[in-house]
Amino acid sequence: MCLQFTKQCNMSYEWIKKLPQYVHQIWFDFNDTSVFTHDHCKLVSHTQSMALNYGFKYKLWSLCDAEDFIKKKYPYYYNFFKSPITFNIIKCDFFRLLLMYHFGGIYIDIDFYVIKSFNDLFTDPDILFYDIDNSIVEDKNNCKILMFEEWYNSSNLDDKYSIEGSFHNGILCSVSKRESFWIEICNHIQIYGKNVKNTHDVWKVSGTNKLKNMFIQNNDKKHFFYCKYYVACPFRCVSIATEEIMECKSPNDKPINSSESYWMSYTLSFLENLHDVRLFFDSSAVVCIDIPSGSLWLNKV
């Protein structure tokens, strides 16, 4: 027992040294239309507390912060970032990727509830990494970039060469700073982002589908891995016929067919009423929370 505990402690320390100790969040209020709710405040406060308690540096980036950072560090992107664009969410997508390139570490949206230390992604044996062939990764030490499914089988890697599928961009992990993967997408967004006219193209140019397809294009790199949906986006599957609720939050939970069910995200009040959040979500690192307002998708020019 002592030997196993010592081994786990050493493993945690190694990853503290290896994973850049940054946690980033953003809140861009483009047109004074975004609503920062009480639930947002509680979630941001919790994320900051979890980050600092586990030795991470934490920053919630405002739009002004982002503009200043880009102007000083990446001036060739500044005109793009300041120019009018149909969907301002593209600028959010762009900046979170730029943060991953520059700092590494963790990016997480403000509608996530953090359950475990982000180092636990690498040290917890119950959190599994998968490669492009859907095989379990035996050695997490090879990881440089870690992606997360946003719902059950969203990656669509059973048909890996299909252009359909997605990885979540609300949670990103980069073990390596200055990883070209991130800056390649930033360059793509700079070129094509201003021409996007519909939400489907946002998904393809800067959103979750772009992440999946870039992951595929980099399949020759043996250090890009991903986690199944339950690690970051557990959800509740409700039978249309019976209203029976199925908790989809572990490797063995397969939701009811989508034609026979609907899916619900967890709410903050649900988590607050749990006796032990970590025990209930024993296979999850974070949980995406349903918050009814404040989406940056609403911020159009």
Describe the protein in words.
The model is unreliable at 1-9 and 294-301 (pLDDT under 50). The protein is globular. It has 2 domains: 2-234 and 284-298, Spore Coat Polysaccharide Biosynthesis Protein SpsA, Chain A (Alpha-Beta Complex); 235-279, no CATH class. 35% of the residues lie in helices and 16% in strands. The strands form 3 sheets. The chain has a 6-stranded mixed β-sheet with strand order 2-1-3-6-5-7, sandwiched between helices. The protein has a 3-stranded antiparallel β-sheet with strand order 9-8-10, with no helix packed on it. The longest helix is centred in the first third of the chain and has 17 residues, at 2-18. The protein has 301 residues and is α/β, with parallel strands linked by helices.
Please sum up the structure shown.
The protein is α/β, with parallel strands linked by helices and 301 residues long.
